[in-house]
Specification:
Elements (H helix, E strand, L loop, with lengths): L4 H15 L15 E5 L1 H10 L4 E3 L3 E5 L3 E4 H4 L3 E3 L5 E5 L3 E7 L13 H7 L3 E3 L2 E4 L4 E7 L5 E3 L2 E3 L5 E13 L2 E5 L4 E14 L2 E5 L4 E4 L2 E8 L2 E3 L10 E6 L5 E7 L2 E3 L7 E6 L10 E7 L2 E5 L1 E6 L2 E6 L2 E5 L4 E4 L2 E6 L2 E3 L12 E4 L2 E6 L2 E3 L12 E4 L2 E6 L2 E3 L4 E6 L2 E6 L2 E3 L9 E5 L7 E3 L2 E2 L7 E3 L4 E3 L2 E2 L4
């Protein structure tokens, strides 16, 4: 009779439900209401502590909590939180993170450094498909410390202070397809964390007053920021803002990639789309390095890319546009390559956007194959679209600089600037360029070779007698 019609099916389903309680972690089964008003803190804690499957699910609803829910991985065993396709939402109505994951991993990412308990019980805690909404001025989204292989995927965190907060020691973190939106603090905050192997990919991180992605006081290796939309992370009342801030002044942040992102903002005081800060060189050697910034669309800030006391960075293949001050500002840095980038205006001088590259006190730099258009930095007295101030051992080659407001290439102070095979000209109907290239008297060892230049109001090339000049050709403009 067990094979007749629906009788067998009913018995089978009942048996499966008894042996494999697939919804044993459903927070509603533990007393959560999900009406946005009831305090569901205790019910969710109970679900996390007692789930048999390890998967805690949040069916469609708004689950209000008033305290941080600590998830001690040594007690819960392997665990994941799931918002059922984004239909479940948590409202954090207290201070601190909605969920804090606590692990005990103190080793590296190497297999030999793991305690068996970490690998067997604590690896890969996950949050996915869940919404988290701030309901308190000091509410945060998610926090992780001591974890191994934590994953946040498909999650929306908004109107909190910090969206995702990593501190202490973590390893192998994956942030994938996450929306962090409209926060008063930082979208993704690496806060005094020791962390190797972290990927932030395919996410939207926008409208966070304290910055989009911020690294501060941390030792990090292998940070990959790839394929994200990181926009409008600024605070008009702050001294400085950055969509991506890598602050290595107190520790080291090395071996990273910022690639294939859209990074743009509204100009804000002291703002930058991307900012690297290191300790003064040479004493701070090794704080930054082995970084690639490639294939991004970067625009609309005071400074698009700011490198200060940085070293070992390659910037290539980016489209960078519309800076109130400098497109790229490099201060007291070394060992840099800036190549094959397009830098232009999208709004024009008349709206106060200047654009241009300014290198100050920097050594060991190659600038090659860049296109710079409508750069207005500088003044009648000094400066220009690509300017070197007190720089050492610099190669400027094969760049195209069009319609500079003052000068195309400007060198003051420093030594050993090799300027070769560049095109510098003003093709506008009423050319206003002062000079294509100007080398001031206090610059030593400068070489100009095989450049194509247009005429300026003060001449095409203005240089002192100590500059070696050969092969300069006048540009044809008719």
């Amino acid at each position: 009779m067990f094979w007749r019609g629906g009788i067998f099916v009913a018995i089978l389903v009942a048996s499966v439900a008894m042996v494999w309680p697939v919804q044993a972690g459903n927070v509603r089964d533990f007393g959560a209401v999900g009406d946005g008003q009831t305090d569901d803190t205790a019910a969710i804690r109970k679900a996390i502590q007692r789930t048999e499957t390890g998967l805690v699910t949040f069916p469609r609803g708004d689950y209000r909590i008033t305290e941080t829910i600590e998830i001690d991985l040594s007690e819960t065993d392997r665990i994941g939180l799931d918002g059922c396709g984004g239909t479940g939402r948590l409202i954090m109505a207290g201070a601190g993170p909605a969920f804090r994951f606590l692990g005990q991993h103190r080793g590296t990412a190497g297999p030999a450094s793991f305690e068996d308990a970490t690998w067997q019980r604590q690896r890969m805690p996950q949050v996915q498909n869940l919404g988290i909404l701030g309901g308190h001025p000091e509410a945060d989204g998610l926090a992780f410390t001591g974890t191994m292989q934590a994953i946040v995927r498909g999650t929306l965190i908004r109107e909190v202070r910090h969206g995702i907060h990593l501190y202490g020691r973590n390893r192998n973190v994956l942030i994938d397809g996450v929306h962090v939106y409209n926060c008063t603090g930082v979208g993704v905050f690496f806060d005094e964390v020791n962390l190797h192997q972290v990927n932030v990919i395919g996410s939207h991180i926008s409208y966070c007053d304290g910055g989009g992605i911020k690294v501060e006081g941390s030792e990090i290796r292998n940070l990959q920021i790839t394929g994200n939309d990181i926009e409008y992370n600024y605070d008009q009342d702050a001294e400085s803002s950055a969509d991506i801030l890598i602050d290595a002044r107190r520790d080291t942040v090395r071996e990273g990639t910022i690639a294939s992102n859209t990074i743009q903002a509204v100009p804000s005081p002291g703002g930058a789309n991307i900012r690297f800060l290191g300790p003064p060189l040479p004493e701070g050697r090794g704080a930054t390095g082995m970084w690639t910034i490639s294939g991004n669309l970067i625009g609309n800030q005071e400074v698009n890319l700011h490198l200060k006391h940085a070293e070992g960075i390659t910037v290539t293949g980016n489209h960078i546009y519309t800076a109130r001050q400098q497109t790229i500002l490099v201060e007291n840095s070394r060992n840099l390559v800036l190549s094959a980038n397009v830098m232009e205006q999208s709004h024009g001088w008349q709206r106060g956007f200047l654009n241009g590259i300014s290198l100050r006190g920097t050594q060991g730099v190659v600038l090659t194959g860049n296109v710079i258009t409508d750069a207005a930095i500088g003044s009648e007295e000094s400066g220009g679209a690509l300017e070197l101030w007190d720089c050492q051992e610099t190669i400027v080659s094969n760049n195209q600089i069009f319609e500079p407001r003052y000068r195309g290439i400007y060198v003051q102070g420093g030594r050993n600037a090799l300027i070769t095979a560049n095109q510098v000209l003003d093709r506008s109907e009423e050319p206003g360029m002062l000079a294509a290239i100007e080398i001031r008297d206090d610059s030593r060892g400068a070489v100009l070779r095989d450049n194509v230049v247009g005429a300026g109001r003060e001449g095409d090339v203005v240089a002192h007698e100590g500059v070696s000049i050969s092969g300069t050709a006048a540009a044809v403009l008719d």
